[in-house]
Amino acid sequence: MATREFIVRMNDTTTSPNFSLNNLTGVGRLDLACRAVSSALFLSHSIRKNSKIYVNLNGPPSPPVTILFDAKNLKRVYPDERNIASHIRIALKKFDKKEIFTETEPGIFIAKKSFEELIKEKNKKADIYYLSKDGKDIRKFKFNLEKDLCFILGDHKGIPKKTEKFLDELGIKKISVGEIEYLASQVITIVHYELDRRLASR
Ligand SMILES: C[S@@+](CC[C@H](N)C(=O)[O-])C[C@H]1O[C@@H](n2cnc3c(N)ncnc32)[C@H](O)[C@@H]1O
User: Fold this and answer.
1) CATH class for domain 1-202?
2) Quick check: 190 and 40 in contact, CB under 8 A?
3) In what helix (H) or strand (E) does residue 113 lie, and over which residues does it extend?
4) How far, in Å, is the centroid of ligand 1 from the Cα of 84?
5) In Å, how far are 129, 157, 159, 186, 189 from 164, measured between CA atoms?
6) Where is S-adenosyl-L-methionine bound in this sequence (predicted)?
7) Is the CB of 8 under 6 A from ligand 1?
8) Distance 96 CA to ligand 1 centre (A)
9) Would you state the pLDDT for residue 195?
């Protein structure tokens, strides 16, 4: 089965492991990132083995850092925010500052990699889309369901204008799930739902 990948660009989320699980909102909205991971990977009582999510952190003290959760090999990761945040904390603690992804726990990888570098790498392998309220309606979109699909999302502040320009210059198409502005985690659920329905009706 083709892979579904998500990339969430977090503007201000901490790149230090020194945070409390009781204060995820106060470290650049890590709670949002954790909810996105949960929506990307989990179903009721099971995990989407063909899903991956990259959380790109751009907060202090040493951005950028990208953490990958690959559902295929995850162990002891659960859908709740605190559990996911605890694995992000372990990844940041074990981080060796390398530019290539290093596995810190089964299915969890970390790298000193910017959003732009990640997108350029992905663009060679997968069909990439930028989720934006102003994009083309997802229901009018024909996806190649045999290919790996990769979806980019912003956090509560959205994707900065200059980063949007970078995506546009790469020819990355914008798609919308409707005129309402949803949370990134909700958009991920909608994308999965739309793709699940298309697969089911083939
Ligand atoms: C809470 S929204 C960001 C709101 C922010 N004020 C902005 O202007 O982008 C988080 C992310 O979810 C995605 N998103 C939200 N609503 C969407 C929609 N209707 N269609 C597609 N993507 C959407 C976008 O990627 C957005 O960056």
Assistant:
1) alpha beta
2) no
3) none
4) 22
5) 12, 13, 6, 21, 23
6) 131, 154
7) no
8) 32
9) 97
Instruction: Tell me if 131 is assigned to a ligand binding site.
Output: yes
Which tokens is 35 given?
């909810």
Q: Which of 6, 58, 132 to mutate to test the pocket of ligand 1 (most atoms within 8 A of CB)?
A: 132
Judge if the beta carbon of residue 198 lies within 6 A of ligand 1. Answer: no
CA-closest residue to ligand 1 atom 18: 133
Cβ(78) – ligand 1 distance below 6 Å: no
- Give the tokens for residue 124: 């060679």
Which pair of tokens denotes residue 41?
Answer: 């990977």
In whole angstroms, what is the distance from residue 173 CA to residue 170 CA? 9
- Residues of the chain under the 50 pLDDT cut: none
Q: Where are the domains of the chain?
A: 1-202
What are the tens digits of pLDDT across the range 67-77? Answer: 999 999 999 99
Quote the CA–CA distance of 181 and 195 in Å, as a whole number. Answer: 20
